[in-house]
Amino acid sequence: MEWLTRLEWRSPDAPGNAEGDGVVSLLVSENPGVERASAAPIVSSANPGSANPGRANPGSAFRVVLEGDLGARTRIGGGRSTEVERVEAFTVPGYHGGLAFVREREGVAAHWHPEQVAKLAAWRAGLDERQRDVLDGVAAWPLAGVANEGGDVVGCLVPLAAHPFYFVATVDDGESDGVGKATRNARWLVSAPKRARRVGAGSVGERDLVARCTVLARVCVLLERLHRSGIVFGDLSERSVLYSAGDRSGGSSASTGGTGRTGGAGDIAQAFVVGCEGAAFEADRVLQRNSAGWAAPETLERSEAADDATADISRAPSVQTVASDRYKLGLLILRVLAPSGDGLERSRDAGRVLGVLDTVGQLMLADALRDEPAKRPSAAEWYQYLRGVIVENLAPPVIRSVVVSPALVAEGDEVRLDVSLAGARQLTIELPGRADITREVGGRVVTERFTARQSGRIAVRATNEHGETEALSNQVRVLPVPTPTQIAVAAPDVSGVLGAQDVLVDLEPLEAAMAISREASGAGSPFEHVAKARARLDADALPLHDVLRIGVEAERVSREKLFPSFEEFLGDITSPRRRP
Q: Residue 312, SS3?
């Protein structure tokens, strides 16, 4: 292992009197007789940033190692401007977990600031042991710089995300590196669960508020710690957050992060934030990356801000602030708690959480996504709110109200059932006179419409892993609809019309040929018989059931054959069985 040590001296004419000002640095190898000179600016960690200058250990230098000395490495991921490799055997003094090497593909890019990486590493070094352990467990924070043969810092070493934050991709989704080991980042929480299952990433149910809010709450803890130290994360997006939801995601149990320690089965969700090498001290006002669809409105150019389509695809680096971090945190909360599925991942519509969050949460999200930076909730405020949602869902559910409207309807009319509840995973609705309805619960209000058939109350039963709660609705009165018992059937008057049109032929020759006596059937023409029948129908209308019976009988008779077909007739007379 070969560390580069900084030799420094102070120019007597250097401006400023603060420690670390006017320092000229050379990088030299610790191996005797080997010297590597470089003009790379390696800043002193004695004054890591104007936000909190006393946090760093006085006199500690930013450690830089040569890329060639890292030894064996394996690629494990990367982004638009970075490549990430797992370092197999190299170690960093003071850190005992696995390491990853994050290499900047564009070493001269506007958003790559080695001096900021040095300050970030010095800030971490200034934390006490407990704070460092917490930071290393939730974030891939820069530990040391990595320089190329020319002495330029081209990347940094960070804690390696533990095993539960990876999965084996079985299908190429078109956005990753194909099949093989891949990081489980929060885009699998934003996309439809079926897509996550299809590629092998497991899935967290869209209505699993405990797992989703736990991941978000852990991100809030990190951001609040950074903001209080004057550090802006910058490029926060769904790809910045790795998660492990234990048994819920179909993967391994949760982990404590880069320390390599893992919990047992059933552990709650964990989060590990990557991309921390892009963070910067707010007071330095340097350019930071933006992911497409995540830039805060105030960080865009005026022409871009006025065009929503341009804002959604903008990746231009910009000077960012704590307020822009809070905007991106609001977007992350919206997209994780109200996943919209493929094609709508860049939605900024705060109204999508209606029914998922209560009134307080809805107002907080609306403020977070407005164009007024000063009104955006802090990460600490979001943590307190999300913690309340988690606690609420770790107890038996609560049913606040069950209301049916309208309460007085006619049989067959539609009614609406509104159930206000908290902490439920499933709701069963027991309806009078019909089968029960069971629904998965994804929010705080469940609405169901159905046809009313019977008077009574509607029972609802809410359940989750911790118990169940039952409640009854208000009384619903269903009025029966009266059914008619008779239908008047009008007989048509055809005596004049049919006779005038000669529709009926003279039946007298036919009756004579068939030896039918007209006197036996009564005097009068067929028209008179029809008139008499019509008079009888008009005098006493037929009951409804008789009308239906007549219709059924007529249908049956119409299907019976009165005469055989010609083929059947010939078959009968030629059949041997019928010959005398």
A: helix
